[in-house]
């Protein structure tokens, strides 16, 4: 990627348009965060038919990548002004550091709450439905077989339960966020280069934070996923200034679109998929790094990374995407995106409850159809209740796009 200068009008693949007023929020950020949260909710109830309409069916990446990059964009918009003022000598270090650290603390408390809720929920299910498997699935067995170590692992984020294991990586990245964002503002392309190098080394040597207890590593390695979070931060910082991180370029747009289409075909055309998977295996046998020749999620393997970046760039270049995001029919998704932490936390509990119900009643055909929409409606109702009579107070990623900013342009 190269820094944005003036967009060359001769290579823009769409007509020029005027941007919103400086105080107008960009509807795409809230909209796509809401979409990502709903896809996480759906995908965390495996076996339901709604999974067919989530972005994991489009290629290699899924809602987790979308969540991280959109959260990074929102964080870049919300927190970059304080960091920039500190770098310019116009603000204090404390004012630059504490907002992101305060947010990380909130995320930490939510992670502990969700872990305890999951333990209690599955223990209740095991007793109520007389199914012992509810005590062993999703890495739950360690709380019974090695209770002392598991109780130690919960507060240090080393004991991670399946489907409650996304926030720990985000917490670590938010703790490192002020340093990452400061480097990205002062030395953007050097920082991006260093981030790519760290992603490469972490993937090649399979570096990760170890679990405790249980062995293995975190579900999402912070050393790998920092790259997509940094890209989001950089986009958010440039976006607030009314700039693009990557200029609109016809050739780049076509290349990104080709990769998105190719990834879809790779996934859904059996002959092509078999051929490409065979070629990846051959590359692996020749010594190519693991994170290049697989679709591994933990290490944010190259196919997943390239897919989410290509989708992001393509969507940022299409004017009708903003129109869809700003449409009145999209208002519920925008509202969900504006209250991401509440929706994510509640959605996690609802998804786990849905898993239990579908496991207990596997022969009830309508249940997988009904549970995800019902959970989405409950999430929306919870947001409406939460905001009833409240007034936003300060900058958080949820309110980031409502803050005054420079004229808003495209995201990537």
TrEMBL record:
User: Which keywords does this chain's UniProt record carry?
Assistant: Membrane, Transmembrane, Transmembrane helix
Mind telling me which Pfam families this protein's record contains? OpgC_C
**Origin, by domain of life?**
Bacteria
Question: Which stretches are transmembrane?
Answer: 105-126, 167-185, 192-209, 215-236, 248-266, 305-329, 341-358, 364-383
Instruction: Identify the stretch(es) annotated as Disordered.
Output: 1-26
The record's section on InterPro entries has: UCP028704_OpgC
Q: What is this protein called?
A: OpgC protein
| Organism this protein belongs to | Sagittula stellata (strain ATCC 700073 / DSM 11524 / E-37)
